[in-house]
Please model this.
Amino acid sequence: MQFEPVIGLEVHAQLKTKTKIFCGCSTQFGKSPNANTCPVCTGMPGVLPVLNKQVVSFAIKAALSTHCKINHESRFDRKNYFYPDLPKGYQISQFALPIAEHGYLEIETGQSGQKKIGITRIHMEEDAGKLIHDPARAKSMVDLNRTGVPLIEIVSEPDIRTAKEAGAYLRKLHSILKYIDVCDGNMEQGSFRCDANISLRPKGQKKFGIRAELKNLNSFKNVEKAILYEIERQTYVLEEGKQVIQETRLWDPSKRKTSSMRGKEEAHDYRYFPDPDLVPLIVDDKWIQKVERQMPELPDEKYSRFMKEYELADYDAKILTSSIELANFFEETAAPLKHKKQAANWIMTTLLGMLNNKGIPIAKSPVTVADFSKLLKLIEDKKINANAAKTVFDEMVDTSKDPKSIVKEKGLEQVSDHFELETMVAQVIDENPDEVVAYRDGKTKLFSFFMGRIMKKTRGKADPKIVTLMLKSKL
Ligand code: ADP
Ligand code: ZN
Ligand code: MG
Model:
């Protein structure tokens, strides 16, 4: 029997506020354990939560960027469960009335084009703390710095059908949250975390099958691998005539498999009820409009503008707008240049090639925007040719020096002096009479031979355009 995968994703994104969601404690990462705590976030009796307004504005921004409808009235609920990293015994979240619902995201799906993935809801909640297990002393400790850090949870409809689509959805959502500047997107530090829900159903059947929920997916690649594994596992279970168990499973990246973690709770197990310490949240149109005015250009809009304004190819525009850092790098590089497309080409091939090789993100590029732009200006002004520019670029990567001083040090200025080049062209023609005859007899492939000779004489610094013209006329 043929099975069709059905996938829905839950994303927890940490919001970039300075302070926590219900108290004034700092959200700064990497502080010593329990340095960022107070009676509110450690769940002391008698304290009261006060909602951080910035959290709501960020949630509205996320909702607007994902085409969600914002609820004018929403509510905070208590989600009750016991765990040592949750000192209150409940998490403040939104259940029945979330801040936003009914949105969608558009993703690329290879050749077949675009696909809309529905977003069920976005709600605000507080994060829990962290347990640190010390195997040496067989002890566990708790760090409550993360307790009360603001999160939004973005829940997708079960509209995703393949691991690839899941990857595309997550990359798009990640990119948007960084564009609108509400989340730093750092997956290693847990600022952007994903759970994947997967079930299979016989092809053609409407009703969904029983789902498993996968946790511990801390990179885009791991999400895709875990989903592929889980599809295979569930196919095997169903083909054996057995049933998939509704449960939470943990992905182990080193073993490349998922294993059962615990039975999946149902919503009613949490005994959700409205938090009596917090009044209903009212968001009026004025507030929404204020956030709307702060909305930056989003990836899809930037992509269309790049195609029009810089005449970039579809693929290039897509890559260059895939992250806000890359888009800004391109625009700042291109700003002082005449040939905008040349800037795109150099970023797509040389710069990204180098960064990928070294495994460095664009934000940490050893070549700054300013220096990169200066390098391209040297080509544009015909001070160096493309060959020399590659050499200069490699040196910039190693030394972070400014391109002009590298050109001077290495004597890489382009030779475009007409008299000098004409003398050389004449010399090369004199020195190679047999090749000249062969060329004139129709062996035009020899053109690159002559070109090579001249480049050798100038140690690669001749202006190839001028030399081409001169050689063509002399030959
Ligand atoms: P919970 O917290 O219990 O996991 P949520 O409503 O937060 O519940 O998330 C459920 C997620 O699972 C959603 O992304 C939804 O699209 C997805 N989902 C629901 N049913 C199925 C199913 N049968 N197969 C795959 N995914 C599903
Ligand atoms: Zn606190
Ligand atoms: Mg879930």
Observations:
- The domain at 418-474 is CATH 1.10.10.410 (Arc Repressor Mutant, subunit A).
- The chain has three domains: 3-289, 297-410, 418-474.
- The CA atoms of residues 21 and 52 lie 5 Å apart.
